[in-house]
UniProtKB/TrEMBL annotation:
It comes from Blautia obeum. Belongs to the ABC transporter superfamily. This is ABC transporter ATP-binding protein. GO terms for cellular component: membrane. GO terms for molecular function: ABC-type transporter activity; ATP binding; ATP hydrolysis activity.
Length: 245
């Protein structure tokens, strides 16, 4: 039986413009006379994820993990290379992405759902479930700017967890909020990713999480893929490398 790929990434390159540490005014005045430095965050990586597979990505801060995830979600445009999602719907669970601060939590549920590709009617059907899971009480009808970071995290998690897409991208937020909500969110996420039809990519520093939940682990280092394979040997090599460097 031919294996189906949910995600195919080929020769992906992503860089950032890095203006020198002078004033914005000076940079604008001299923009045509100097080339802005560019930091290459992802350096020509290629990989694929099978339908229903759970891929974990690990690596030290600045290695390109979150940049890769943001490119898959369509937030960043690559300099070159291709990303093929084979027509699958995709959502990114990353704290700090996507909310309008002046809008209420309830309004942000609708907005976020529509940005994920759901119709307003589909989002409304799930709204009560999202509100109940988020446990925000009366704050759901208050502007998001009044939320604590924990409340913000709860709402972001609840929207992505309840509005299920074919592909879920999870950026280091498997456990959010207070201790009770952390347990609930972790159990919910385990339930979601155990669905054989759902493809998941998890970026995390937690070795235990990646070993327990993932089918495959990809170790990124300085914008490149250092190793990809079964979780245990990849994580052991990663730990050994980090202890020596």
């Amino acid at each position: 039986m031919e294996e189906k790929h949910a995600i195919e990434v080929t020769d992906l390159v992503i860089s950032y413009q890095n203006l020198k540490k002078t004033s914005i005014k000076k940079n604008l005045l001299h923009f045509n006379r100097q080339k802005a430095d560019r930091f290459v965050a992802v350096k020509g990586i290629s990989f694929y994820v099978r339908e229903g597979e759970i891929l974990g990505i690990i690596g030290k801060n600045g290695c390109g993990k979150s940049t890769t995830l943001n490119a898959l979600a369509g937030i960043f445009s690559p300099d070159s290379g291709t990303i093929d999602l084979h027509g699958h719907s995709i959502s990114l669970l990353s704290i700090g992405v996507g909310f309008q601060r002046e809008m209420t939590g309830r309004e942000n549920i609708t907005l976020s759902g529509m940005l994920l590709g759901f119709s307003e009617e589909q989002v409304k059907e799930k709204e009560a479930e999202i509100v109940e899971f988020a446990e925000l009480g009366d704050f759901i009808d208050m502007p998001v700017r009044t939320y604590s970071s924990g409340m913000y995290s709860k709402l972001a998690f609840s929207i992505t967890a309840i509005l299920e897409t074919d592909i879920m991208l999870i950026d280091e937020v498997l456990s959010v909020g207070d201790q009770k909500f952390k347990k609930k969110s972790y159990e919910k996420m385990k339930s979601l990713i155990s669905n054989k039809d759902r493809t998941v990519i998890i970026v995390s520093h937690s070795l235990d999480t990646l070993e327990e939940l993932c089918d495959t682990v990809m170790w990124m280092h300085d914008g490149q893929i250092r190793r990809i394979g079964e979780p245990k040997p990849v994580l052991e090599e990663y730990v050994d490398f980090m202890e020596k460097n």
